[in-house]
Amino acid sequence: MRREGARNINYVGGEPTPNTYNILIGIRETKTNVPQLWNSNMYCSKECMKLLLDVMDFWLPDFKYGNDQCAERLSKVSNYWEIVSRNHKMAYDETVDLGTAGMIVRHLVLPGHIECCTKPVLEWIAKNCPKALVNIMEQYHPTHEVPRNKEFKDIDRRVTHEEMEQAYRTADELGIIWQPVS
After folding, report:
1. What is the distance of C-alpha 104 from the center of its chain?
2. What percent of the chain is helix, strand and coil (3-state, nearest 5)?
3. Confidence (pTM)
4. What number of H helices and E strands is found in the chain?
5. What is the pLDDT at residue 6?
6. CA–CA dist 117, 64 (Å, integer)
7. Which helix (H) or strand (E) holds 125?
8. Pairing of strands 9-11, 36-40
9. pLDDT score of 38
10. Alpha-carbon separation of residue 52 from 39, 58, 60, 173 (angstroms)
């Protein structure tokens, strides 16, 4: 890797976790000090997180589901809450809480999932990662299998203005830093 004007290295382009080994080799071979940003869904092992904690400077994690049932049904992943909350907390405690780096948690609001997903995620962040910035995202758009599969009928629409206002209101009540500064 060569810096040539780069201000940071952002591991994105899908989920970087399957490429962790190659990313760590690349970091080891880097000859300049370039801040490293991990842009991930944070669904990875504790061992992977321990390796990343030693080299990542900034975290841009997703936290989508507020429970295992929605994660299993909509993304076909198990133990989502335990794994993702653990990894967010590990990253936060190792960096943000120590004042050595930052974290912006991205939460994609899903239609009809304010009570089961948005509120629990925001409540968890407020309690466990209080200094993290939060990007409450409204850009969900039903594509791919959603319109064709009756199992996903509940998310076959855009998020309403009222749902987004409820998410913002919840964040305000919890003292979460979410509003844009510019």
Report:
1. 8
2. 45, 15, 40
3. 0.87
4. 6, 5
5. 63
6. 7
7. helix 119-128
8. parallel
9. 87
10. 12, 11, 13, 33
Which residues, 6 or more positions from 126, have their beta carbon under 8 angstroms from its beta carbon?
A: 174, 175, 176
Distance CA(162)–CA(39), nearest Å, equals 29
3-state secondary structure of 12: coil
DSSP state of 94: I
CA distance to 25, 46, 128, 166, 180, per residue, from 121 (Å): 33, 20, 10, 14, 19
Strands of 9-11's sheet, edge to edge? 9-11, 36-40, 58-61, 102-108, 133-137
Question: Which domains does the chain possess?
Answer: 9-174 (3.20.20.70)
Q: What single DSSP character describes residue 112? A: T
As a dihedral over the C-alpha atoms of residue 37, residue 43, residue 48, residue 53, rounded to 10 degrees, the angle is: 40
- Residue 3 is predicted with a pLDDT of 46
Q: How far is CA 68 from CA 21, 50, 77, 116, in A?
A: 28, 23, 8, 10
